Amino acid sequence: MTALARTLSVAVMLAPLGGPARAASPARLTHERSIYSDSAEVALKGPEGVACDDRGTIVVADTGNGRLLLYAWKDGNLDGGTQLRIAQASYPVRVQIDSKGFVLVLDRRTRRIVKLDTKGAFAAYVDAQGASSPVTPAAIKLDPADNLYILDVVAGRVVVLSPDGKVTRELPLPQGAKGVTDVAAESGGKIYVVDAPSATVFVAEAADKAFKPLSASLKESISFPGYLAADNHGKLLVVDQSGSAVVRLGNDGSFQGRDLALGWMDGTLQYPAQLCLTGPDVVVADRGNNRVQIFAMPK
């Protein structure tokens, strides 16, 4: 789609599907760049995953094309677009980058976590050593110390692995939760999960044995939360998948505002999947628009 066509296609903005129309809060995210293709001009197709680090590395799970793409983002400049095709991860949906530059990929086809070395080559499968029963990953997240948090909806739990792959903690999912879609974590062992049907975020501190609600249901503000990110400063960002927005929550789970809206023009979203933080910027996998977008956070 040409830039002109993308612009014309959003002459009318649609209300979020699956919920009442809601006015977006004053914009807090400023569009900086959209990524539509790799370095060879091969178009992205339904990208679901993005991972970032503080060095400006961006890894895209270009799910529809069964590959990963590597970019470098620094001072407003985008380089790279190198393609990686990994036989062990032919259907990548979630990605994370650890502190050493290794990439973890969750493959939906095999339901396994694949570890890539700093050159993008297959290094190993990540298996939960010492888990009470087999682990079926639905989502993954790393904390700043490289501990891995695995959402296992089949067994109804979150499993925490140390950097060497050993299980250090298992927590049952919140009672009454009907559809937990993601897990997030902060330094010190605080864990969050989000239940999509009720739009409720739950939290467990490092010493807790169970999750508790972080706040009341946010159903009036979020249609279908599909992804959760913690900024390690007590704030949370939620991808409202059906509402095509990014929602900001305070450290008490309170609603702080919505950014962006449904559309096709650069700076709008259509069924976004995931996001990541790199320095002052937010990178969003804009799945329905077959692109990845980079936004600046307010200074």
- Give the C-level CATH assignment: Mainly Beta
The tally of domains stands at: 1
What is the alpha-carbon Rg in Å? 18 Å
Report the portion of residues in β strands. 35-45%
Query: Could you state the CATH homologous superfamily?
Result: TolB, C-terminal domain
Largest sheet: 4 strands, antiparallel
Assign a percent range to the helix content: under 10%
How far do the termini sit from each other?
A: 33 Å
Structure description:
The protein is globular and about 50 Å long. It is built from 1 helix and 24 strands. With 299 residues, the chain is mainly beta. The longest helix has 6 residues, at 3-8. It has a single domain (3-296), classed as TolB, C-terminal domain (Neuraminidase), CATH 2.120.10. It has a 4-stranded antiparallel sheet, with no helix packed on it. A hairpin with a 5-residue loop joins strand 8 (112-116) and strand 9 (122-126). It has one helix spanning 3-8; strands at residues 30-35, 49-52, 57-62, 67-74, 77-84, 92-97, 103-107, 112-116, 122-126, 139-142, 148-152, 157-161, 167-172, 180-185, 191-195, 200-204, 212-213, 225-230, 236-240, 245-249, 255-259, 275-278, 281-286, 291-296. Mean pLDDT is 91; it is low at 1-24.
